[in-house]
């Protein structure tokens, strides 16, 4: 949308059409407003939830916004993950939230629908350019405001044509959202279906054969390259820490907050986990599980299981997920658990 100016379209700078981080209106302290934390915004680009608070509670130290504003996460990895939203249905038209959001408000005389900017933000070309213009220390990088102010926008001159584009893109986005909701609902049902088929993994009430976990998987850990050597970081190898799984709800994972270089991999105890490996966080936060959806590395905060033909990744994932509370309650080493202290029903 930004690479070329099509016939009948005009090119602007983003700052020509939108105010970035607009000032606050005069709001009384007793006014109820919507409070939006970073966790309340989906990686798919929409608002999941919000909390109602009195303005007096949140008027200092937060970012301010209104209905029809666009919020965009500025900090890594939230920006890369796609956290953004077009705001609507805010309590009394107002909201406040994380200071790690940029807020974009259409200028009064600008001939553009806010949703057009929203979909420009979702373009891979925009995200790639923005990542190249991040600044700050590793793990705390943020998109620069100046990059956004001067970012070129090519848009149709008529709002009618803009509306047609938005309607098409809204339809596609709704289909994607419905798909994600279906997957989420299915994941809620899986534990019950699993227990119906295989019984309770903690009691083995269906008398399945018992095996040690290290007889049906290869158990490996990981490592961390030196953080003092910049040559080890920001490469092409995905590298996970337990923090990347904290609160993560999907079965599969394919990216984390940081990447390492090939040199960082070779000069550390980091281990390459092949696609299909089951990753279990054995250091705080303990008990999160995911399946590697691509080849990746982990730090030493994981015990990872590379399945043999005797066990399926998804089966082991459910076993560990259903047993995590018991594992968290153990008084002895999590490492000892996985080297055979506890055994599990097998797939045979």
Q: Quick summary of this structure?
A:
The chain has 348 residues and is of the alpha+beta class. It is built from twelve helices and 23 strands. Strand 10 and strand 11 (142-143) form a beta hairpin.
Structural account:
This protein has 348 residues and is of the alpha+beta class. It is built from twelve helices and 23 strands. The strands form seven sheets. Strands 14-22-19-20-16 form a five-stranded mixed sheet. A four-stranded antiparallel sheet has the order 2-9-6-7. The protein is globular, with a radius of gyration of 24 Å. The N and C termini lie far apart (54 Å).
Using brief descriptors, characterize the structure shown.
globular; alpha+beta; five-stranded mixed sheet; four-stranded antiparallel sheet
Fold blueprint:
Elements: E1 9-13, H1 14-17, E2 18-20, E3 32-36, E4 51-54, H2 55-58, E5 63-66, E6 70-73, H3 78-81, E7 84-86, E8 94-97, E9 101-106, H4 114-121, H5 124-132, E10 134-135, E11 142-143, H6 145-149, E12 152-156, H7 159-198, E13 210-212, H8 213-216, E14 217-220, E15 233-240, H9 242-245, E16 252-253, E17 258-260, H10 262-266, E18 271-273, E19 278-281, E20 289-292, E21 296-298, E22 302-307, H11 313-329, H12 334-341, E23 343-345
Parallel strand pairs: 3-8, 15-21, 16-20
Antiparallel strand pairs: 1-12, 2-9, 3-4, 5-8, 6-7, 6-9, 10-11, 13-23, 14-22, 15-17, 18-21, 19-20, 19-22
